Records
---
Amino acid sequence: MLKRYSLLWRLALVLVVVAVTTMVVGTRITGALRNDAQRLNQHAVAVMQGYAAAAEQAWRTGGQAGVDQWLADMENRETGDIAVISATDQSLSSAPLTQQQRAGLHFQRGVHSRMSFRYGKKMPYLGVPFPAVPDQGSLLMQLPPRLRPGTYWPLIENLLLVGMPTLSALLLGGLLFWRARVPLTALQAQVLGFKDDTQARVTGPLATRSDEFGELARSFNHMAEQVCGMLDTQRQLLNDMSHELRTPLSRLSVALESQMSEAELRQRVEQELHHMRTLVDDTLALGWQDTETGTTDLESLSLPALWDMIVENAAFESGWDKRRFPCALPDNALVYGNLNVLAQVFENLVRNAIRYSPEQGAVQLLGQREGGAWHLQVVDQGPGVPDDKLYAIFAPFVRLDVARAGHTGFGLGLSIARRGVERLGGELWAHNREPGLCVHLRLPAPPRV
């Protein structure tokens, strides 16, 4: 979902600003160059003013005959219509003005006026007053093709139409590349550094940015924390497992060196092998949950039916009567989860409760629906645990022998249960009762029908 400060909005804003700026600047530059291209250059102005001065001189020295002679000379020098007219728009030569010349007289331009590009190959008429006595006459002449301004304007205009957007795109691309490369380079450095130092984290402004780069940096930090936690857990698990295995192995070494009978030795070996097999199975289950990335085959499960299945096995293993496992849930209590995972969770919780329950104790399942989840409680009648250890009991290989002395186990059951519940998107915690321990589970429930 796009956020208020998403990088998309910033890029869109930059693109809009660049596009509008390019259009405005391009229009102004094109307009300014176009206006300049429509005006005669200094050389052309000087040529036209020189012709006007020559026509004036011919009129002042030779009159009508002088103008005729000058016009005859000009026909050999320039193409197009040429006429010398009076202040009353009458021809100063012996030839009257033609209809075309009179039409040009009405649309004549000055030497400093802008020339239109719409004339095509037809040259515009220029009116140039006599320089000395402008009130006596002027030169009316079609602009010579060689003096026409803007000859290369179509090429320049096309270059501007293509060049301005291209230049803007290159500048924008370079800016965006630079802006994106800085945080990406910083992220890359942290990722590469994480290989050698697992404490490497993205810090500074990059980690607090409100756009996608900031989210990526925070996601990397979160991932790094999880990886470090998994590595620490695995190292602790390996250390604890090696310690737990060393004890039965030491007892086996002592038994082999002792004077025990063959039957006693076989019994001891069988006991220690069962001890180690249980440890390995529980450790593998815990390690499998650490490496599992998701839970498949999720379905709606009946909690009373699941509890009946758990009670059946628990009663057989412990010798308890099934009536010592009451369930206070309605028959339509459903949760959304995986059958195998939930069965393992409840088996570990019930076995743990049985292990620390007094004679004739009971293990009860309570719960109520809270919104989109079921809040369940597995309650025993044992001695409970110290309040400051309520969180620690869910860590691997934690055994509170002071509170619950005389009981065996590796301290993996509650850890396996908690990770199973978390994989299903739930929560698991505990608190003491009077008497007993109450383990809470919050599991997602399917929508109400």
---
Amino acid sequence: MSAVSDAGHDRRECASGLARAFGFLGKRWNGLLISVLIEGPASYAELKRAVPGISDSMLSERLAELTGAGLFERTVDAGPPVAVSYRLTPAGEALAPALEALRAWADDNLTREGCAGA
């Protein structure tokens, strides 16, 4: 079997989508934050508790990034008190099967040593 596809492209060079996905999801905390919201909407405080070790500034940065990328939706309820919550958009929800597959693979193939929150 040749590494060159019928279209004449080298298959080893056709993984740009995967490179973009890992570049984004591979940023520290992004995958974990997405996995928390797979369980349902959460407030800033709930996200902070669910991801031990993340600083306030990093959480704010990642939430803005994930919202800007169209994976999270931010909702502000006027209150009182004012309440901000985050939920996955359909694009974010589409990641659930991939993240579940990665979790299952990690459980089967990686030790828990050195894992944050393990």
---
Amino acid sequence: MRPAAPYEGEIRTEGPVTVVYLHDSSGEVAACGTIAVVGTDAITDRVETDAAHRRRGLGRAMMSALAEAAVVQGDRIAADGLA
């Protein structure tokens, strides 16, 4: 995951749940999202970009990071989409 500058990504995984945060240059959360993998299926939830940071490619960066995390956790559909 490589969001456009000046944004930095942070990924936290606990068990089957991964939360991705994209922080702006002041450290505030500009976007975030959650994905959980159950078996070989992934469930995406709470994907949001703060209104002040929209239209900068953060949604795409977020969904890419969530899909990559799902593949690591064993999701097969995301793996097919990333191939």
---
Amino acid sequence: MIVRPKRNWFSMLFVWNGSVLQAIIPQLVFLAFVSGFAVLTQGRILGEKIPLNTAPFTLFGVALTIFLAFRNNASYERFKEARLIWGHVLIASRSLASQVLSYIPDNEGIDRIRLIRKLIAFVYALKHELRKTDPTPDFARLLGREEAERLCRKQYRPVALLNDIRSELGRFVATGIVSDSGLWVFDTQLNELEGTVGGCERIASTPIPFAYGVLLHRTVYAYCIMLPFGLVDSTELFTPIVSVFVAYTLIALEAIADEVSEPFSKAPNALALDAIACNIERSLLELCDSEVPAPKVPDRQYQLT
């Protein structure tokens, strides 16, 4: 996720890091050549004049804009839901950690801190599952090498960790350390965390239908390639400038929609899952009066991963 200080209106015109411009420069260069070709040939291909003018592009542009707006809204809804789910992970984790520390007595033989470290490991397990990265270093740091190796053999690691926590709480009930009503309180938060796992899996495994992306992609490029031939008679030498500006708007909107529709990726405009997971760890360790790691900060490109 790009995190930048607020800029004034003039400096925003020249922002590079955090925009999608650097990703679409090849397409814009290609369309600039197409526009230049249209100007040099006065809108002719193989000697034949392309019978286009601005009227159909105006009507077609309105329809294309509506379609782009639908695509961007659908992408942002996925991003928004993903952020809300991770907000629930933070809330439920804090509540469960506070309940463990408050309702389970600090007796000999009861390691409440290890239980909370398993809860932190769940947060990192969910992050790594969504990003398809290796959770071993985080598991080893939080739970030890042996436990990390056991968990890494699991297919659904976040669910396995929640099951471990529930099993341990069940043993506390069996030994009379926790009452049945106390277990019900713990189960409420565990069920909430299981719901967040399912919500994240739903978003990650159900992309926006491929046909929408193909149709939009083809339509945007067809529009941008034909546009110079419709403008050349009215804008003449300014055709490349106008065409590339319109192409930048349309292609950039498509690129932004693609990035935002995958909120768990490492794209510049995706969720900062590393920072969110670190924030949850810091919050839970502070409840335990343990040493708190440093917060994640943006890198030189203003990106928070």
